[in-house]
Amino acid sequence: MEGNVDRNRQAPGLDELIDLLGDWSSGEGPLYRRLTDAVGRAVRSGDLRTGDRLPSERRLADALSVSRATVVAAYDALRGSGLAETRRGSGTQVSGGAVAHRLPVDGRVRGGQATAVVQRLITQPPDLISLGQAAEAGGPDLTRALLDMVREDLPGLISDAGYHPAGLPALREAIAAHHTVHGLPTEPGQVVVTTGATQAVALSAQLFLGRGSTALVESPGWPGCLDVLRAAGSRLVGVPLDSDGVRIDRLAAALAEHRPALLYLMPTCHNPTGVLMSAGRRRRVAELAAEHGVIVLEDSAHAAGLAPGQAPPPIAASPAGGTVLTVGSLAKAVWGGLRIGWIRAPQDTVARLARLKALDDLGSPLLDQALAARLLPTLPALAPERARIRRERLATITRLLAEHLPDWRWQAPQGGSVLWVQLPGGTDARLYARVALRHGAEVIPGATMDATGAHDDYVRLPFSFAPETTAALVDRLAAAWAALSRSAGPRCATTCQW
Question: Which residues, if any, are the signal sequence (predicted)?
Fold first, then answer.
């Protein structure tokens, strides 16, 4: 059986193993049986392979916040089914006979942080409130625009061949007008339409990054986009934030030391901190990037729903020169199911991106683009009402948190729809997330959102839910906090500072 072991492969570490187990504690039956089944699924899928060592019983029990007896019983069951074996001095490992006939399957990004969030999007566990999403349901404006599009635009659309790799001309014109109104003069030829903001980031990474390259990113940031940069072969270097945006002193030092190929920033409604980068800070970023010859990728996916003047002009509006790509999206402004994003860039860069887009999918769906072209000009008029709803939902969740979790601390966000919450007493947010999952809440630990692994006592908490869902969420978070406190014993009650 030893011949089936891949000696060049690194077995999953403890945190990666727990991500593979996913929502293991849901379902029926004893807790040890649910853990047994989850490890068995990882073996049969090929995510755990012959010879992979499993953590010690005590270490896994501590990491999952369960009793050691639960893990002991699970390992016994795995050995009994032939999926694991224990060797003196070597611990417990995946049995060779259990997977000798299988080809390894591994679609995960090594070192990726968004794996568990993406997996739960696929599996959609019942009755789970996921904090991995901060999107709102579509409103009546979406329905009206869709009906108008079908009635007025559909005949002309279906007579078209349907292939527009750079985007539907009407949508490119609408995006150009949108940026112009928000302080960034733009021509349609400077726009390429993408299937969501994630594809926009991926195409940009494909164009400017490669194996062994370096990208500077904010610490913290959104793990899905950080994983996209990693998947392009890039090494990520984190730069910290303050209340004004990315710190200029640390950015200047990182540019000089690491000579990166790309600088990825989220200056408007930063995810997860809610920081709004000031106009002066944006200007200095543009100047530093131009000085060092670094491409700037500014992710403004959360900015489309803002009215003109609610945020400073994009970094690309700076006269400093250099190459700046601006990413936009309708997912946060309209509806997460409308997978329309874009990149605004110099025309020669747009031509190269359009070629990559054509190789990827020959162009985003035309009907979606036609709907987006109708919606984009209406967003400034809708912005006040959407802002009112967000204020009400922010007030709701902060009131409930103050009532049920008074030791949790956060700073009021300047934009967006998430709170960046610090847990008291230096609590490991990964451990809390594992307990919260058993109470029906998917929490995103801060360390998974930081390329440096810092912020390990923070969690990201969206407030985009309807009030009844928010109430249920806070109840689950409070129950999980109480359960963790009981299992960990007395913990620090001092107030945690931002």
Answer: none
Task: Report yes or no: 60 and 39 within 8 Å, Cβ to Cβ.
Answer: no
Cα separation, 238 vs 260, whole angstroms:
12
Q: How many whole angstroms separate alpha carbon 82 and alpha carbon 320?
A: 64
Closest CA to 404 of 334, 474, 346: 474
> Pairing relation of β-strands 458-462 and 418-422?
antiparallel
Residue indicated by tokens 């709907």: 371
Whether 307 contacts 383, CB under 8 Å: yes
The pTM (predicted TM-score) of the whole model is 0.84
Long-range contacts of 119-127, Cβ-Cβ distance < 8 Å, separation of 24 or more: 119/19, 119/22, 120/22, 120/23, 120/442, 123/22, 123/23, 125/23, 125/26, 126/26, 127/440
Rounded to the nearest 5 percent, the helix, strand and coil shares of the chain are 50, 15, 40
| pLDDT, tens only, 402-460 | 999 999 999 999 999 999 999 999 999 999 999 998 999 999 999 989 988 899 999 99
Neighbours of 422 (CB within 10 A): 21
Cα separation, 188 vs 170, in Å, equals 9
Q: Which residue has the tokens 């999007």?
A: 121
Task: Tell me how far apart the alpha carbons of residues 112 and 63 are, in angstroms, rounded to a whole number.
Answer: 19
CATH number for the domain that contains residue 417: 3.90.1150.10
CA distance 119 to 140: 31
Cα atoms in the Cβ-side hemisphere of radius 13 Å centred on 146: 10
Is residue 451 located within the same domain as residue 366?
no
Total count of domains within the chain: 3
Which whole number is the average pLDDT over 161-184?
A: 96
Cβ atoms 316, 303 nearer than 8 A:
no
Q: Which domain holds residue 87?
A: 2-107
Only one residue has tokens 């747009």, namely 350
Task: Tell which of 380, 398, 422 closes a domain.
Answer: 380
Residues 6+ apart with CB under 8 A from 109: 115, 227, 230, 231
